[in-house]
Amino acid sequence: MTDYRLLKACRREPVDRTPVWIMRQAGRYLPEYRKLREAHDFLTLCKTPDLAAEVTIQPIERFGLDAAILFSDILIPVEAMGVPLEFHEQKGPLLGKQIRAMRDVDSLKTPDPEESMPFVMETIRILRRALDGKAPLIGFSGGPFTLASYIIEGGSSKNFILLKTLMYQAPEIYRALMDKLTRTVISFLNAQIAAGAQVVQIFDTWAGILTRSDYEEYALPYSRRVLEELTRKDVPVIHFANDCAALLPSIKTLPVDVISVDWRLPLDEAAQMAGPEKALQGNMDPTMLFSPPEKIHERVRDVLLRAEKASSHIFNLGHGILPPTDPEHVSAMVEAVHRFGRKL
Ligand code: CP3
């Protein structure tokens, strides 16, 4: 059970071939997902364990990937804290609570995961039975900073002006919010691990919008606290931040097993920066999947060649797969990893 190649690669042990999975691997680029979405909205899929489990398994069956990632969203625990959440076809997530004063933070709950998000843990339990022997299951959470960005901005953002205004002008309110988010993330990840998640990934997607010193002051200490308070048993942790190059010297000080690198930084350089004690994940540009299969093969080889400088490597994209991607091109990518990846 513990000899899945993904788990071995997380522990920096030799693997029979490079493991491969894809961020956002269950989603709109798959016709079988779109078919289910015709009948159910996104949040209903997330909150119905049998459906969430079915969607989780779709890309495993189609591509034979080396890991399944729980079908859910990083904003699920934010809704459980008492922030109204909607998903809009064009605008993406919309969060309905302003955080401008301390009383706004005070009104947020620190939810008990088994009570307020039981569907997540139930989905994990169904998946562990369904996936047994096929693939390990990755659980996840947003990082406190990234979750704060969605709450404060009320959704996705371009320049994060509301977030930075609060951070710089009302640090005590910002820190009170971060403290609540940190406690929420700790209990949520611990509940996922207790339910059976075999790896967890922390999506601190928007950390890369900060200067290194602001990251160290306003985000890193909260991520560190999350990691220190996980009851992980032997569950490895993967850290993802988009646009992470400038932050790698700080990120590598976190007690994580794997650093997921976006596509901008060549993996050989990332390996040098991260050092021999971290495994690396990544990092093909998701838009490379819009090129012809021969070109995809070439680029996969390039990523794999550079990854030889890392002590261990999990192949992935540098960020989530994009909805217009052709699944045939994903097959070409996976096939190339199988063909050219590390061998024992
Ligand atoms: O990786 C997986 O397949 C597991 C499921 C997963 C989803 N979202 C499903 C999803 C995971 C791990 C996430 C993480 C997530 N969600 C992040 C961090 C990772 C990243 O990609 O940066 C963020 C920032 C979110 C917030 C979010 N959820 C946004 C901004 C959006 C809208 C943009 C979009 O792609 O539609 C979502 C919606 C979302 N999350 C969808 C899926 C499959 C699309 C929903 C639909 O079917 O309409």
Q: How would you characterize the largest beta sheet?
A: 7 strands, parallel
H/E topology pattern: HHHHEHEEHHHEHHHEHHEHEHEHEH
Taking strands numbered 1, 2, ... along the chain, how are they ordered across the largest sheet? Answer: 1-4-5-6-7-8-9
Helix residue percentage: 40-55%
What is the residue-averaged pLDDT?
97
Topology:
Layout: H1 5-10, H2 31-39, H3 42-47, H4 49-63, E1 68-69, H5 76-80, E2 85-88, E3 92-95, H6 102-106, H7 113-116, H8 118-131, E4 137-142, H9 144-153, H10 161-169, H11 171-195, E5 199-203, H12 212-218, H13 220-228, E6 237-240, H14 248-251, E7 258-260, H15 267-274, E8 279-284, H16 293-307, E9 313-317, H17 327-340
Parallel strand pairs: 1-4, 4-5, 5-6, 6-7, 7-8, 8-9
Antiparallel strand pairs: 2-3
Helix pairs in contact: 4-8, 9-10, 9-11, 10-11, 11-13, 15-16, 16-17
The chain binds coproporphyrinogen III.
Textual characterization of the structure:
- The protein has helices spanning 5-10, 31-39, 42-47, 49-63, 76-80, 102-106, 113-116, 118-131, 144-153, 161-169, 171-195, 212-218, 220-228, 248-251, 267-274, 293-307, 327-340, and strands at residues 68-69, 85-88, 92-95, 137-142, 199-203, 237-240, 258-260, 279-284, 313-317.
- The chain is α/β, with parallel strands linked by helices and 344 residues long.
- A seven-stranded parallel β-sheet has the order 1-4-5-6-7-8-9. The protein has a two-stranded antiparallel ribbon with strand order 2-3.
- The model has no long low-confidence stretch (mean pLDDT 97).
- The protein contains 17 helices and nine strands.
- It is globular, with a radius of gyration of 19 Å.
- 48% of the residues are buried.
- It is 48% helix and 11% strand.
- The chain starts with a helix and ends with a helix.
- Helix 9 crosses helix 11, helix 10 (161-169) packs across helix 11 and helix 11 (171-195) packs parallel to helix 13 (220-228).
- Coproporphyrinogen III binds at residues 23-28, 37, 42, 69, 71-75, 87, 92-93, 140, 156, 203, 205, 320.
